[in-house]
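Write out this protein's structure.
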Amino acid sequence: MPAALNGYGHRRGLGRREGTLQRVRIVRMIGLVGLVATSLLLCSSQSFEPAPKLHRAKPEDVPPWAEQGNFRFIRIDGGQIESWKAGRTWWGDKFSAEEKDVLSHIYDRDFEQMLGLLKQAEFNWIWVTWSSGWSFKDEDENRENLKKAIARCHENGIHVSAYLSASNMFRKSAYRDDPETKKYGLWMHRIPMFYAGPTKTEPHISWDRRLADARKPGWRAYLLKKAELAVDAGVDAIMWDNMIGYNEGLAQLLDDTQRMAERKARQTGRPKVMVEANIHIAPDRFAMNDMNDVIWEEDGTGGQRAQDQILERREAALPTPEV
């Protein structure tokens, strides 16, 4: 009798393990398909050329301080929303408690110390994390802290770009507080797209980070509200990251941003804010940079350079030197 019970238990245990392994295989397969699909979206087989009606960058929109050789730039990612983001993405897994604490308070408690270090190192251009995909409500405290930080930067001769994600939604936050975002998800081959990236061992899917489709006007309008708040706070440039999805939608987002920036300049009398984006410079996508006043390069050495310098070198048919 005990032997029969043990045998039954063993078979049932095997069944459970086989079922679990099968579910793991399915989840991994979905994740890999999602990663491949995201890669395909970033590396379209067809080269992108902005439509003639879309904005083209003009040298006069780049102020002298942002011209090549006149700036020293560093990115200052931070705020509570960046700490939350790190906790939901693989690159934040190894952050210590102290590092997470500093990251959370870089725009409030620790800002004056950071400002002193920026001045000591003679940086005159930074970016700050304005919006990374959380709801308006969850990002409100960060915006209030940054209004003060931006003003202090300007008082000390430091220009500021506002970093925003073009496609990221932390779905529990966004869906709860901004329920219209449920309609904006990015799909490919009937598969919902999530943020994914390589690690040293295997692809990592961030299931909390649902990707949105920039082809949907409602999503672009939602993002533009956040970007306009950054302009109202006094930033000098809008920086779009996570340019993941279909080229036509992302190009329209850049065009919408440029038109918003021009409108705000007319309304306020302030210089037009510049627009930049992390396009990922695969040859088929590079032409999208024609719409940007500034190019941010994350591929290879990284860096930031003024778009008018790029345009001049293109016209002269000279190779652009590396940063």
